[in-house]
């Protein structure tokens, strides 16, 4: 059965079909209920929306451009390729959109301290940035492995005044950072707001992160309509937790002619180590929500792997799990190697150095574009820039800097 | 009367002891559980290890890692429970852990397996009352007590929802935080107990941060039970496969303090 709209969820209990929900310790439950109530009020408050819009325009630099990529289109020889340029945002990725929204909520709730988890460091940098902007102390939890491979972002966070706590538990990556952030939050609920970086976690986070990121899709929809008079045929975005993808997809979900493709990280390959929760996982409960997870038969969570620290998470936002299950969005995956090739392809053809996360989306575009007629339009989200990744890319290419 | 109800009806406060199943190995757990019983524990909480124990402090996180590192599976835990029930027909056994390992094969499967293993109650840290349908109905259908947590942030308006559908006892987490870290001031526990007892018809046990007989005794004067976990888990970390004897000694001292608490008061 097809619903009348794909844009009405979550329900009042925070569920997207069987996914989502509020699977948290009792200590956090009252706070999560408060957050939901406050978010409902903020959403209905024109002053909140006006302040959010003003910051996005004058601080973040929105609207981000919509760019037609002529040489990449010619090289691939099929569909027209357009990019939503969210890598041109202040701090270099889409993450800042959500951080602006959440810190305004935190201040409405009277919270005086901010915590966040980060993988690639982009969300950590964006959180540290808004904390500096509003003068709130900020602690960022980051897996020790990620600290080592994302040094430039660690330094940025420190410059911005954040305390960066390396997490050595587990594999020292994003999920371990999220565990540690939750532990801190449980112990400091009275004054602390947790700015979650992706459209996952307990309700209402998947909803509010999606809403704050939907500025990407709303702008792109208007921009493409005004430039070409039509809607895209295919949207493409990379998925770790899935915030840039849901931000692009959501405003188009009820445009039935628009197909959508989410791209997970296949790491070394789906039969080896990877971070593709939809392709290689099954539904389970972690970090406050029910969603697709990489796990063993006993429900123990397995480590994700991706060349991209931002995609290296064994779960995915619950709305994506639902969109996959009902078939509205297609999901695929690309390997580390394919992402590296796409990274270089975009550098070479368009003079744009993408982050490794959207390089996964570009790799999927490179596969599908040649199979489509020249009058079709692919719109991909360029959700982050690659400055932070040049050292790890050099290492993978065997180049010493 | 259920085993859990009997444990809280002995005429003295109950000592509830937590250890992680399979820590340091599945083979070592039965002797440690026997030591808890011999030492005088009235209720046993057996932790189900999980890769991502978000509500636990360093001591129990490490216990989870040791157990999983030793290859502990859900089947091992159920076998440990089944064997415990054979050796100790009257001592209540509660499984405590996280939602994913409990629900991954379906709530009915888990409830059925618990019933067959002689498990009396289940504490699931990350299933609040709002998500009760995930596990609660299946447990209740098999006569297993869903045991809920109340915390300093659980206000009077929320308490009835926390108690609804729960049984066995109410676990009061005395500090807003993770296991094993700081401990709550006695007067704050006393105030909380008055508030909780006004709503709860079931016994209330107090835990988080209780490590010594000196701490446990005063809490037992105001609560129906006292939960000790991290201090026992620390002994297992220190003594490994030889932990049973030091565990028995600590439990014995704790049991004396808890069981005699109200006599001292009188």
Automatic annotation (TrEMBL), chain B:
Catalysis: reaction(s): (1S,2R)-1-C-(indol-3-yl)glycerol 3-phosphate + L-serine = D-glyceraldehyde 3-phosphate + L-tryptophan + H2O
Gene Ontology MF: a single term: tryptophan synthase activity
Enzyme class: lyase
Keywords: Amino-acid biosynthesis, Aromatic amino acid biosynthesis, Lyase, Tryptophan biosynthesis
Secretion signal span: none
InterPro entries hit by this protein: Aldolase_TIM, RibuloseP-bd_barrel, Trp_synthase_alpha_AS, Trp_synthase_suA
Listed Gene3D superfamilies: Aldolase class I (3.20.20.70)
EC number annotated for this UniProt entry: 4.2.1.20
The keyword Lyase belongs to this UniProt entry's keyword annotation: yes
GO cellular component: cytosol
Pathway(s) of this molecule: Amino-acid biosynthesis; L-tryptophan biosynthesis; L-tryptophan from chorismate: step 5/5
Active site: 45, 56
Classification via NCBIfam families: trpA
Functional summary from the UniProt entry: The alpha subunit is responsible for the aldol cleavage of indoleglycerol phosphate to indole and glyceraldehyde 3-phosphate.
Known partners and oligomeric status: Tetramer of two alpha and two beta chains.
Family membership: Belongs to the TrpA family.
Name recorded for this polypeptide: Tryptophan synthase alpha chain
Encoding gene (name): trpA
């Amino acid at each position: 059965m097809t619903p009348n709209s794909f844009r009405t969820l979550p329900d009042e209990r925070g569920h997207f079909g069987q996914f989502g929900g509020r699977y948290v310790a009792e200590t956090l439950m009252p706070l999560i209920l408060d957050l939901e109530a406050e978010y409902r009020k903020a959403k209905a408050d024109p002053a909140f929306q006006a302040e959010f819009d003003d910051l996005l325009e004058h601080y973040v630099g929105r609207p981000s451009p919509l760019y037609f990529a002529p040489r990449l289109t010619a090289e691939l020889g099929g569909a027209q390729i357009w990019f939503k340029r969210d890598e041109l945002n202040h701090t270099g990725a889409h993450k800042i959109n959500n951080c602006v929204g959440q810190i305004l909520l935190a201040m409405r709730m009277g919270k005086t301290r901010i915590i966040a988890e980060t993988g690639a460091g982009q969300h950590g940098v964006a959180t540290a940035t808004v904390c500096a902007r509003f003068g709130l102390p900020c602690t960022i939890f980051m897996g020790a492995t990620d600290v080592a491979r994302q040094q430039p972002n660690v330094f940025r966070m420190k410059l911005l005044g954040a305390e960066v706590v390396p997490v050595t538990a587990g594999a020292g990556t994003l999920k371990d950072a999220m565990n540690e952030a939750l532990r801190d939050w449980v112990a400091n609920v009275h004054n602390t707001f947790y700015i979650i970086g992706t459209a996952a976690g307990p309700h209402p986070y998947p909803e509010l992160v999606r809403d704050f990121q939907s500025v990407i899709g709303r702008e792109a929809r208007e921009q493409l309509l005004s430039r070409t008079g039509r809607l895209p045929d295919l949207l493409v975005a990379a998925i770790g937790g899935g915030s840039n993808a849901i931000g692009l997809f959501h405003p188009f979900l009820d445009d039935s002619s628009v197909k959508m493709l989410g791209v997970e990280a296949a790491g070394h390959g789906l039969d080896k180590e990877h971070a593709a929760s939809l392709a290689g996982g099954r539904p389970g409960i972690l970090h406050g929500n029910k969603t697709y997870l990489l796990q063993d038969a006993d429900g123990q969570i397995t480590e994700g792997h991706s060349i991209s620290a931002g995609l290296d998470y064994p779960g995915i936002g619950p709305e994506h799990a639902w969109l996959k299950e009902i078939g509205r969005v297609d999901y695929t995956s690309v390997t580390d190697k394919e992402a590296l090739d796409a990274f270089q392809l975009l550098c070479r053809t368009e003079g744009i150095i993408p982050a490794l996360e959207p390089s996964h989306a570009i790799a999927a575009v490179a596969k599908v574009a040649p199979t489509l007629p020249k009058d079709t339009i692919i719109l991909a989200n360029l959700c982050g820039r690659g400055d932070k990744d040049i050292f790890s890319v050099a290492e993978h290419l065997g180049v010493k800097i | 009367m259920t085993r859990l109800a009997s444990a809280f009806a002995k005429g003295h406060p109950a000592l509830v002891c937590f250890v992680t199943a399979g820590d340091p190995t599945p083979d070592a757990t039965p002797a440690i559980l026997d030591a808890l019983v011999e030492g005088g524990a009235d209720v046993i909480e057996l932790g189900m290890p999980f890769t991502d124990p978000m509500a636990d402090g360093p001591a129990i996180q490490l216990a989870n890692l040791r157990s999983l590192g030793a290859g502990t599976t859900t089947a091992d835990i159920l076998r440990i429970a089944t064997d415990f029930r054979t050796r100790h027909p009257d001592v209540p056994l509660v499984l405590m852990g996280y939602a994913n390992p409990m629900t991954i094969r379906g709530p009915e499967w888990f409830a059925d397996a618990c019933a067959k293993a002689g498990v009396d109650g289940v504490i699931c840290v990350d299933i609040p009352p709002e998500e009760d349908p995930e596990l609660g109905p299946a447990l209740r259908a098999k006569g297993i007590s869903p045991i809920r947590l109340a915390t300093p942030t659980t206000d009077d308006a929320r308490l009835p929802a926390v108690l609804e559908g729960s049984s066995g006892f109410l676990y009061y987490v005395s500090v807003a935080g993770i296991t094993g870290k700081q401990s709550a001031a006695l007067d704050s526990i006393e105030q909380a107990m008055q508030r909780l007892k006004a709503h709860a018809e079931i016994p209330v046990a107090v835990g988080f941060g209780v490590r010594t007989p000196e701490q446990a005794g005063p809490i037992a004067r105001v609560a129906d039970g006292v939960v000790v976990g991290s201090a026992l888990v620390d002994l297992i970390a220190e003594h490994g496969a030889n932990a049973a004897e030091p565990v028995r000694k600590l439990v014995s001292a704790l049991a004396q303090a808890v069981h005699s608490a109200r006599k001292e008061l009188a």
